[in-house]
Amino acid sequence: MSESENSFVSHLIEMRNRLLRAVLAVVIIFIALFPWAQDIYALLAQPMLAALPKGGQMIATEVTTPFFVPIKVTMMAAFLLAMPWVFYQAWAFVAPGLYQHERRIGVPLVIASVILFLLGMSFAYFLVFPIVFGFIVGVAPAGVAVMTDIGKYLDFVMTLFMAFGITFEVPVAVVLLVKMGMVSIAKLREIRPYVIVGAFVVGAIFTPPDVISQFMLAVPLWILYELGIIVASMITKPKPKDEADYTPMSESEMDKEFDRIEAGETESSEADANEADQEEPDPNHTK
């Protein structure tokens, strides 16, 4: 087996070990939380239960739903608690292949990614859910009892958790794009109007059809975009003045430069030939 093949196999083994450690951490935390699965689901369902009329309750329309839904919620909680360890395993795998300056910026970005994602979920749980569920219950026609299926409720809140968690990652994405040289800060400021429109489009897609919840997703997305621009401008070194003022030569200037180089090479060749003729001894010369 060649050296490159050995290196590839060792990387696969390393990746397998890191994945096993991450999965093992999630499983251990899940087993520890399993006795409180019902309580964890009750905590997740609290915003909806608080919005229901007095005596309102949630229902299960499938036979296995009362068992599997709390299990899924507990698994989600276990993953969130293990997220720092999972991200550490991912970082430990890719860090040896990075340069020193990439490692310096990588650690803060990984930590910021975890914190911002959790902040996004917390924002959805404590601020968005009460308003959304209050609106849904409030617009129910008279005589209609709102009794949400617990499986459908879990799917709904997971969608909002992912939407707000990813939205709060916008500053990290902006900083990465700038540091990788894929876009400039000036360009980010230039496309600001399009980002604002896109934020409200995203809010309309991932939130219920009420204006308040759409604003509660779109406005943070816009603010976090501006925050990403500010952070990127603070950590990005400005280009040197000579590099910033550099403009590429036009086609005519390049043709002139090529002609000058060719003329210089021709003159140099002729001078070398003349010098060689002068140094060549005269065969008719005798001492």
Automatic annotation (TrEMBL):
Residues 264-281 have a biased composition (Acidic residues). The chain crosses the membrane at residues 19-37, 67-88, 109-136, 156-179, 191-209, 215-235. Its main location: membrane. Residues 240-287 are annotated as: Disordered. Residues 253-263 have a biased composition (Basic and acidic residues). One of its GO terms (cellular component) is TAT protein transport complex. GO terms for molecular function: proton motive force dependent protein transmembrane transporter activity. It is found in: Cell membrane; Membrane. Keywords: Cell membrane, Membrane, Protein transport, Translocation, Transmembrane, Transmembrane helix, Transport. It is a multi-pass membrane protein. Part of the twin-arginine translocation (Tat) system that transports large folded proteins containing a characteristic twin-arginine motif in their signal peptide across membranes. Together with TatB, TatC is part of a receptor directly interacting with Tat signal peptides. The Tat system comprises two distinct complexes: a TatABC complex, containing multiple copies of TatA, TatB and TatC subunits, and a separate TatA complex, containing only TatA subunits. Substrates initially bind to the TatABC complex, which probably triggers association of the separate TatA complex to form the active translocon. PANTHER family: SEC-INDEPENDENT PROTEIN TRANSLOCASE PROTEIN TATC, SEC-INDEPENDENT PROTEIN TRANSLOCASE PROTEIN TATC, CHLOROPLASTIC-RELATED. This is Sec-independent protein translocase protein TatC. The lineage of its organism: Bacteria, Pseudomonadati, Pseudomonadota, Betaproteobacteria, Nitrosomonadales.
